[in-house]
Design brief:
Elements (H helix, E strand, L loop, with lengths): L10 E4 L3 H13 L4 E4 L1 H13 L2 H12 L12 H11 L1 H10 L7 H7 L2 H24 L6 H16 L8 H13 L10 H17 L4 H15 L16 H6 L10 H10 L6 H16 L6 H16 L1 H4 L9 H11 L3 H6 L2 H27 L17 H5 L8 H13 L6 H10 L2
Parallel strand pairs: 1-2
């Protein structure tokens, strides 16, 4: 993070492992303007994971696995739903087999299970519970997902869970799981009244203070929040849910050239955060596939480049791969490939590969020599001087998944100016409370 530039980070998003929680906490305590967020896709998936730990549900899922249609995998989000749903979707086929070709089923337990109507009913009820969980997880995995999607998604998920039939024996259990997981993110009273509004103002003040803004700037932010609450210009623009996004709406707020809009800046910062690490995690899974299963003896920089190329083409399939989803013959496909790539022989003929390997060899050799020198120097340092570097080393991919990067040097420069001019020693909570009392 120091090599990239601390000021370029808006938030750190990880799953809820103990080591990662500590990492996020240390980063936030050291750099208070970097938000400490857990991956929302992981968190929503825990609703389904908790449900899968119920003994009766676990037994049904285990029985589903015997059919080998779609197996449940704890690390593959959504498979709990697809496992049970595949059974209900295949019910007519199973009946056809048991009635006309029972001899193909050699396992007596499977044969008995496929004739059990209660088994299909249980699968249907479980699938109806888990479908909204899977849908929300898919939404939060998208590259353009934001924190507003999390909040709206949680509301929609609660509404869909509430619509589950009262005859479903697991409805009360999934509601309890939902409430428990929701409480990990929303620590407020059940009614969005004055107490909730106070908390919103106080949270905004704390965030603005942590971003390094002065007391005068924080007061202006609170005044702008009052205008937004009353739907007063410039915050009274219409919003088209079909053609606009929250990011586009906030970017359309017009202000004077010599002024800044604190509320706009804070909103854009929050909407620029991707609340899920799913894309990053898939990239690491691909690295494991390169190194582990394929046993490739490649240089680290080549592996990094291969992963970036793969990630780029997956994200831009429609633009970059013109023959996608077209019914091409093998001959046509080969011609497309030949037109799209430079062959290995071209590299070899021009000596490009040899030069590249020599450059990498020299680079690695110099890197090893520098590492040895650093290690020799580090042994002579006083142990008390080693505490300036935290033990957590976060990697670049999590940062690359963060959609629009709108606040880099501009925010840093603004913070430096405000530190030099205005008061930085103030209590953001008291400031928010005083602003609320003026309403």
């Amino acid at each position: 993070m120091q090599n990239i530039g601390i000021e370029k980070f808006v938030a750190v998003v990880t799953d809820h492992g103990a080591n990662l929680r500590v990492a996020r906490r240390i980063i936030h305590e050291t750099n208070s303007f970097i938000l400490d967020l857990r991956c929302m896709a992981h968190a929503i998936n825990l609703v389904a994971s908790d449900f899968a730990e119920i003994e009766s549900v676990k037994k049904i899922i285990s029985n589903c696995g015997r059919g080998e249609i779609q197996s449940y995998c704890k690390t593959r989000w959504g498979t709990l739903y697809t496992t049970t749903n595949s059974i209900t979707q295949s019910k007519p086929v199973f009946y056809l087999i048991t009635e006309n070709h029972p001899e193909v089923i050699t396992n007596i337990k499977v044969y008995t299970l496929l004739q059990n109507e209660e088994f299909y009913s249980n699968c249907y009820q479980i699938a109806s519970i888990l479908k909204p969980v899977k849908e929300l997880t898919n939404v939060l995995e998208a590259r353009d997902a934001n924190l507003a999607d999390c909040f709206i998604g949680l509301i929609k998920l609660g509404a869909k869970i509430n619509q589950i039939s009262f005859g479903n024996p697991w409805k009360s259990i999934i509601i309890s799981n939902y409430n428990r997981r929701l409480g990990e993110f929303i620590n407020r009273s059940m009614e969005l009244k004055q107490a909730a509004l106070n908390e919103i103002y106080e949270t905004a003040s704390i965030m603005w203070h942590n971003l390094g803004h002065s007391e005068e700037s924080c007061l202006k932010l609170l005044m702008e929040m009052k205008l937004w609450k009353r739907n007063v210009a410039p915050y009274n623009l219409t919003y088209d849910t079909y053609q606009e996004t929250p990011m586009k709406w906030w970017l359309s707020i017009n202000i004077q050239e010599d002024e800044t809009d604190q509320l706009q800046e804070l909103a854009l910062l929050l909407f620029s955060i991707v609340p899920s690490q799913a894309v990053c995690e898939r990239n690491f899974s691909m690295l494991k596939w390169f190194f582990g299963e394929k046993h490739m003896n490649l240089n680290l920089s080549k592996i990094e480049s291969m992963t970036k190329i793969r990630s780029y083409y997956i994200s831009n399939t429609d633009k970059e791969i013109r023959f996608r989803d077209k019914n091409l013959s093998e001959h046509e496909l080969r011609n497309n490939i030949n037109e799209s790539v430079i062959t290995y022989n071209t590299f070899e003929k021009n000596g490009i590969l040899e030069r590249d390997e020599n450059i990498e060899y020299e680079r690695n050799k110099n890197l090893e020599e520098n590492t040895e020198i650093e290690n020799e120097l580090s042994t002579s340092l006083n142990i008390n001087q080693l505490v300036e570097n935290p033990f957590v080393d976060l990697t670049l991919p999590a940062f690359l998944t963060t959609g629009n990067n709108l606040f880099t040097n501009n925010r840093l420069n603004t913070n430096i100016k405000s530190r030099n001019i205005d008061n930085m020693e103030y209590d953001p909570i008291k400031l928010a409370q005083s602003a609320l009392n003026e309403e």
